[in-house]
Amino acid sequence: MSNPQGKSAESAKYKWIGTRPDRPDGADKVTGRARFGADFNLSGQLIGKVLRSPHPHAIIKSIDTRKAEALPGVKAVVTAKDFPSRPT
Amino acid sequence: MAKIHVSTTINGAPTEYLCDANQTLLDVLRDNLGLTGSKEGCGSGDCGACSVTINGRLVCSCLVLAPEAEGVKIETIEGMAEGDKLHPLQQKFVEMAALQCGICTPGFLVASRALLAKNPNPTETEVRFWLAGNLCRCTGYDKIITAVLDVAAEMRESAK
């Protein structure tokens, strides 16, 4: 639904310029139908969790991931060491 | 741990589910029942993205334990439109561009509807106060407040 209110003679030549169309994703977003990333569940999907440092501006000397890896259901624990190409 | 069986009513439909004792109502709505319109923004009752009503009372579903829903009536964003016909609040939010990314929108709409059910003639201050439990990080609040006030006026007019 476009709203031609206040459309000038100049903009009347155009299809969209000077109109006030409703956003195309509006209806999906106001009804809860819109699917965001967190709204998807696929079969076999793994869930990732981020553990952040409890200390501001600390220097990470080492991270012991053994206890996390031993938890039931944990498939992997990933740290910066797993990305050697990225400067830490 | 044994699952807990819960019989409840969601958007008018009798619903049963099995949940863990420590699951939140939001988790059950989203993960067990596939009602993903209610969003988890913070999980601690600060942002209001998970707002639903229980027996007409506005609550953060992330702060309600799923077993507590036994025998109550829950309304979520999914029950707001009637088929393709948007609720006046939903229509006005779209028309007035009172949304951008849309994560906070279901919560704002559920909260606004609860406000208008309680107070059909709110002042701007009352709307702002009522919606203080809903956070929006992109649209800003003015368009949302204006939309709610406009709908309140229109609904009062059509009720005459």
Describe the protein's architecture and organization.
Helices cover 12% and strands 0% of the residues of chain A. Chain A contains two helices and no strands. Chain A is elongated. In chain B, helix 2 crosses helix 5 (142-159). Chain B is globular, with a radius of gyration of 16 Å. Chains A and B meet through helix 1 of A and helix 2 and helix 3 of B.
List keywords for this structure.
heterodimer; A: 88 residues; little secondary structure; 2 helices; 12% helix; elongated; B: 160 residues; alpha+beta; five-stranded mixed sheet; 5 helices; globular
How many helices of chain A in DSSP terms?
2
Query: How many extended strands of chain B?
Result: 5
Fraction in helix of chain B: 25-40%
Structural class of chain B: alpha+beta
Which class do the helix and strand fractions of chain A yield?
little secondary structure
- What number is the mean pLDDT of chain B? 97
Distance between the termini of chain B: 55 Å
Order of helices and strands of chain A: HH
